[in-house]
Design goal:
By secondary structure, the protein is α/β, with parallel strands linked by helices. The chain has 2 domains: 179 residues, P-loop containing nucleotide triphosphate hydrolases (Rossmann fold); 68 residues, no CATH class. It is 37% helix and 27% strand. It is built from 9 helices and 10 strands. The strands form 2 sheets. The chain has a 6-stranded mixed β-sheet, sandwiched between helices. A 4-stranded antiparallel β-sheet has the order 2-1-4-5, covered by helices on one side. α6 runs parallel beside α7. It is globular and about 55 Å long. The two termini are 13 Å apart.
Length: 257
């Protein structure tokens, strides 16, 4: 069960979204979404596959453009940014992809160095090594530095993917289905890691998932995306304390005791 995070600053919105709409041809994926993320908060967005959860975080990071609505990230209107300023903003956003997105031809060390060398060209070799060691320690995988991604388990690759986003010390973390395809024990480890990252780096995070165990373990607040809008929000118990059959069937499908 997620314990309340005392570091959440409810006076500081790091993401603010109003009346967000997005359609693909005639299919309305997002139909007027409002959302705030507060500094230091883990916010879980729940919903079935295909409900627009991943579309939402792609719009937040400027990878997709909305049809209507306002998206402000760290005080900036994403739509008004030049390509250069959008790139600068993205350096403050850590994106943990569902498939970890590691480069198979690089060692773990080289994978972790890549964003540093690409974005911080003035760093010394010693400083790069120190940062790599720091994030590997944060995800509990210091021993994997010289290994190739193919030598790692699915859970280890997920952890290294998270470490690679942490190395730039982002303000915001976006997790896309962080426990997808993992066994139950590894899921618990990833959930714990998400909470550890929040505490250690004071990140503000959006966690996209349909895994209720992940939602309950990591979410300070949970919002549920149904029919293109957020229909429920609150703690895990508040969201699922309802007679709404759509919500009850989602709960039952996940087989949570």
């Amino acid at each position: 069960m997620k314990h309340a995070n005392s570091k959440i600053d409810y006076n500081d919105k790091v993401i603010s979204i109003r009346d967000l709409k997005k359609a693909f041809d005639d299919y309305e994926v997002l139909r007027g979404v409002d959302l705030d993320l507060y500094r230091g908060e883990n916010l879980v967005v729940l919903g079935r596959s295909g409900t627009g959860k991943s579309v939402l975080i792609k719009i937040i990071s400027g990878l997709l453009k909305q049809d209507e609505g306002q998206v402000n990230v760290l005080g900036q209107n994403v739509n008004n940014l030049s390509a250069r300023d959008l790139d600068k903003l993205r350096l403050k956003i850590g994106f943990s992809f569902q498939n970890s997105a590691l480069y198979d031809s690089m060692t773990v060390q080289e994978n972790l160095e890549f964003p540093l060398v690409r974005n911080s060209r003035d760093l010394s070799r010693k400083e790069i090594d120190r940062l790599v060691d720091m994030v590997l320690d944060a995800v509990g995988l210091s021993q994997t530095k010289d290994q190739m991604p193919s030598e790692l388990s699915g859970g280890q690759r997920k952890r290294i993917g998270i470490a690679r986003t942490l190395i730039l010390k982002p303000d915001i973390m976006l997790y896309d289905e962080p426990t997808a395809g993992l066994d139950p024990i590894t899921c618990i480890e990833i959930n714990n890691l998400i909470n550890e990252v929040q505490q250690r780096y004071n990140t503000s995070s959006i966690i996209i998932t349909h895994d209720l165990t992940c939602a309950r373990a990591t979410g300070d607040r949970i919002v549920m995306l149904l029919d293109g809008q957020f229909q429920r929000q609150g703690t895990f118990e508040e969201v699922f304390n309802t007679d709404d059959e759509r919500v009850k069937s989602f709960y039952n499908y996940n087989f949570i005791d």
